[in-house]
Fold these 2 entries.
Entry 1:
Amino acid sequence: MTIRALVFDVFGTLVDWRSGVAREVQRLLAAQAPGLDAGAFADAWRARYQPSMETVRSGARAFVDLDTLHAESLPDVLAQFGIADVSEAVQAELVQAWHRLDAWPEVPAALARLRKTLLLAPNSNGPVRLMVDLARRNGLVFDAILGAGYSRDYKPKPALYRDAVAAFGFAPEETMMVAAHSSDLAAAASHGLATAHIARLNEHGPAGGETGPTVPVTYAAADLADLADQLGCR
Amino acid sequence: MTIRALVFDVFGTLVDWRSGVAREVQRLLAAQAPGLDAGAFADAWRARYQPSMETVRSGARAFVDLDTLHAESLPDVLAQFGIADVSEAVQAELVQAWHRLDAWPEVPAALARLRKTLLLAPNSNGPVRLMVDLARRNGLVFDAILGAGYSRDYKPKPALYRDAVAAFGFAPEETMMVAAHSSDLAAAASHGLATAHIARLNEHGPAGGETGPTVPVTYAAADLADLADQLGCR
């Protein structure tokens, strides 16, 4: 089967969330929290990500977007680092940090190569506007924005993978999920999608990242340019 | 209020559905139906559009996409024109005619101008893949694909306008619905969106099109380039 569409995990796979959040945290909290380990702050915030989405995935609450979940988990993170009296305006700016992330260096050019012959969409847990902001910031062009905004649920719920396949209208095996996380790829594969793993050795800063897939995948790539090479996209 | 995002009607407003469908009908049915008035065939097919969507809007049936509605209404149109024995393969190709429409001539360049400062998305009754196919065919770049695929309902149901505003996250009055149809703009305005009317004098071929808005609008434009001029987008 030929691959005809790529749907992408975004946080970690296309963009460097840890450095970007740490940069904004440093900028916005330096005065109040001198000596703050901004990378550790980003890690602590990200650690709330899965538990916060689980409240939606489980059906315990109606769908709310990731901006809302980030805003809800922020006070806990601030308290964990002993940072008090952060204004609502600064908290809102901190939530926007997740809209201001830089792509991994090879991504813009590699995505442009892939787009010459394939349809492309993010299939992320971030909402439409967050995806649009990341795309505009980094010069990424997608054909559509799929994912949590489109499916009103969070990966790895089946709707995210099934809706992504249906939206582009190819067979599941012609639609490839691209991610730096084996769990995402395992879920995609369970719905028949092809899968590509991207090794993001620095996703978690000093804590590293997945050096390769821990599950069977269709492609394993060092970065997005390597994937484009393997797919024959010049 | 400044306009920050534009959401577009597509059939008639950005693309010339009548000429495109007639061209494909002519190509696919000429052998079986010599002398067929392909424009009249396109009109007859389009006449089934609102009644077919109404079955979804009313709640009488679960959401199905416009490809499905086009496929369902096609046999009636063929019968109306006395065309028998059209294979399933040709019928499927005819449904694809709606994916192969040309943009009105000024649209690609005007859209590129608008995109320099505004976020853009179709807010059409067509599904994601249909929008993607039209965008790729005509070199249009959008930031997201909103509309029936995103909202699982059809204009003028409130969800289409509310979801479009929420997806980009600006105030309703910062989000502008752009359409060649006053009814669409009236519905958008009822949800607080700004509105722009585009005069498509040839939408219905010899039967013309709306020469101007029949409802109050924020902008009335001769075409999309005129709208870009009025918005100061160079």
Entry 2:
Amino acid sequence: MSTRAGIVVTGTEVLTGRVTDLNGPWLADRLLELGVELAHITICGDRPADIASALKFHADEGVDLILTSGGLGPTADDMTVAVVAEFCGRELVLDADLEARIAAILKRMMRRFPDADFDAVMAANRKQAMIPLGAEVLNPVGTAPGVVVEGTPTVVVLPGPPRELQPMWSTALDTEGVRRAIAGRTEYRQETVRMYGLPESGLAETLRLAEKKIDGFDRLEITTCLRRGELEIVTRYEPADAETYREVVALLNEQHGTDVYSTDGSTVDDQVAGLLAGRTIATAESCTAGLVAARLTDRPGSSAYVMGGAVVYSNEAKSELLGVDPALIAAHGAVSEPVAEAMAAGALRRFGVDTAVAITGIAGPGGGSAEKPVGTVCFTVARADGATLTRTVLLPGERADIRERSTTVAMHLLRKLLQTP
Amino acid sequence: MSTRAGIVVTGTEVLTGRVTDLNGPWLADRLLELGVELAHITICGDRPADIASALKFHADEGVDLILTSGGLGPTADDMTVAVVAEFCGRELVLDADLEARIAAILKRMMRRFPDADFDAVMAANRKQAMIPLGAEVLNPVGTAPGVVVEGTPTVVVLPGPPRELQPMWSTALDTEGVRRAIAGRTEYRQETVRMYGLPESGLAETLRLAEKKIDGFDRLEITTCLRRGELEIVTRYEPADAETYREVVALLNEQHGTDVYSTDGSTVDDQVAGLLAGRTIATAESCTAGLVAARLTDRPGSSAYVMGGAVVYSNEAKSELLGVDPALIAAHGAVSEPVAEAMAAGALRRFGVDTAVAITGIAGPGGGSAEKPVGTVCFTVARADGATLTRTVLLPGERADIRERSTTVAMHLLRKLLQTP
């Protein structure tokens, strides 16, 4: 027996793409970790009839649990709780205690807006204290409380902002309603292999080989996808199939050894961060204009090794900040291996670091030529001890793709350089 | 009479959040522009039964058109076309002409992978030439063709990668099947007001006032949302309600004049780019570490005014690259208004530009104190003629939120500075 769930994301701003939904995927991942099957995520606007038909769809699919996100705000277009109450056949009632808690939160928040009228704001937020009769309340992280309505299926109502939804999901997991709904779940493992440098069709070929050679292969649930210029192979399996999974990983290593860079779940960002421990790094970026520095400093604690970087969009900035000889730019062009090398050398010197990464390329849409088309990007990674790698690649896609993929290429070159003794 | 559509996004990697779905929202926006109502986007994994039940859900909702994205790749887990064929009651047949076209595309692509086996790849891709009998083929942009199967509802099958899906949607619009399916659409207008500096509940209050004061207000479909630290109000209406919409905008201006910065659809990025025409700018970033430079250079043509930037994560980098006096840092701390001012002055001097933006803050999770908690960020924007604005703000959220919101604050300060005569 297994437990199944569905996710209902609400919000016209999400349906129409003005806000990217992060909740559906995040909740999906949490459900998978728990061993709860997820069949569908549905997204609809702030219309009661559409929210109701989405709830009915999931219930008709026979799920044990429905999670909703969004529609808990103070504005009149937020009405998820009312629709859920009706769907579950519960009356909507004012929870006076909850109303007092929301008022206390609002008083604190309003300090940032000294000109706002507290009573008006409180009136706008009173509707957030209306809950389905008998529902379990999830205390607000922002101002919107969630609710758990036990039934067939059990419905968990969560707020839209991810930073509110995520902690409230943890609270929901501790409620009686959710615990009973997911009691029948199966235990799954999920593992990830990451590859860099192989086309997707090459991997498809290997997986067909695995299907022929490896017993029990069809019990593994394998998903492959291209992500940030890499190939990711995610496998879900029941613990009894662990040996079969190990055989698949062994086959991938055998067929594509140098392309497989991670089998333990680590990303290239994790690996580079590990390799940079005890070192110092600076960036020198032209076409990516800060994206590599931003990616390296994504993670807490990166200030231990990232000293800084130079964004050198103009030729003058390349010379002034990094000491690139203008004659070198004149001779080879700003997008060239000699200039990438000079940029990396300049970053090592300028920031007094032991590792540098330099990128110069043509992100487009303009600036390409027959010889150096849009997507041409030159990279140099260099260590103060003289170890250096320089590469020129031709990246597909548009401006944003080329800039984004360039950061991935840079991370992999850094990984290679730092793994070299 | 109006035309309604549903969107079926497929792909286990999307359902589980390893890849962010961009297609649902993008297609939703295209449908809205066309005046086609959209009720639901559903997302499911690569399981035939789930894809089939999603198709049935949308059909039961009475839509005229279903768009699917994803599941057209060469791997065995890609099976959207087969499921759609069965759903539409059509046989799946090999289109020999299409197979030849795919082969030609693959030959070109394979040049980048000289070691791959062409016949093996071609076999993997043969299934992409299988189409529902009588369907209209949408020529591949990558290697995956789309199809349009006319019926009740008409189904349009599109590939997963956005850069393939987007041009193929244009092609689909020209097919007989899609043209007939959307013949009954209503004309809508959609306009956006953008605000900065007001809490969402303040806006809710004004919209309640509008509801009382403005005749026909309930015919406008208004969505409000927080996005990148701003408030966005999107309104859809039929052309006959244009005057009502104008009254709402007038009321917003009356109530929140200084907070309303855009009523013509322009973003702060658009406005800053316009204001930078004929000028030059450089960035000086600590906690955002390149994100502002990357945001300014998002748009094509930005090399005309962005000269470069300094990412100065360490104190040494602040002094070495931007000439910030170490004594100033020692006296006030790296996160302080005097240091932000010195960074901006250093960027003006160093890059020889007429505009600079400097940011220094505590993105967390570590590094905060009682006096300067995590989220404290100091900004200076400065012009070479001496005009300067300096602000310290306390931003909510986690590391990534604080970094991202800081870029929005920086853009608005730049807008203000550049609008000052």
